[in-house]
Amino acid sequence: MKILSAEFVISAPGPKQFPIDRKPQIAFAGRSNVGKSSLINALLHRKSLVKTSATPGKTQLINFFIINGSFYFVDLPGYGYARVPHAVTDAWAPMIEGYVKDAPQLRAVVMLIDSRRSPDERDKRLIEWLRHYEVPAVYVLTKADKLSRQETVRAQREIASALGLDTPPILTSATSGLGMKELWGEISRQLDK
Ligand code: GTP
Ligand code: MG
Known about the structure:
This protein is α/β, with parallel strands linked by helices. It has a single domain, classed as Rossmann fold (3-Layer(aba) Sandwich). The protein has helices at 36-44, 86-101, 121-132, 149-163, 180-192; strands at residues 6-12, 25-29, 62-67, 71-75, 106-114, 137-142, 170-171. It starts with 5 loop residues before the first strand and ends with a helix. The mean pLDDT is 90. It binds guanosine-5'-triphosphate and magnesium ion. Guanosine-5'-triphosphate is lined by residues 30, 32-38, 52-54, 56-59, 78, 142-143, 145-146, 173-175.
């Protein structure tokens, strides 16, 4: 995919602020600090279109970016960060479920899992919603640069088995660019459907 333009559109606290045009959306979801914002920047070859941080839990709104004027990337709030106040963590479930169940333009959710961790309860809950609402999921392991080749093979196998996936998750690194081509291939496939 050739990126001609990528622009921030809105940080939406809820459905009232979501874009209302019919352009397709690809959302990115996962735990706080898993590398969502970094992955989006890497896919778009932008250093800082999406804010990344060493302090997890920063993104608590649903952020929309318009790509090539024709489709949206949607950065969903991260979950599972202990230091985020309870009022914020309680808002997470209805916010995300509300988005996935009621987004007719949502073509797929890119589900990010840290290649060094096991999927947790919230990852599993989100995956259940996607299956329930029949939203296609694209599974991605992040930060592969932090593992040896052998460890990445094991992580792919173990996480695929923990989540009951038929195909291994895509191995990525926002730092090295590993997996970006493969992930774009999958995103394009979902957009063309
Ligand atoms: P929240 O918005 O807080 O939910 O986090 P996020 O999922 O958007 O994570 P973010 O992209 O901000 O990255 C979190 C931290 O992980 C930052 O310090 C990044 O530099 C680091 N990071 C992200 N991707 C990679 C990667 O591929 N490799 C390495 N080594 N570090 C990464
Ligand atoms: Mg983020």
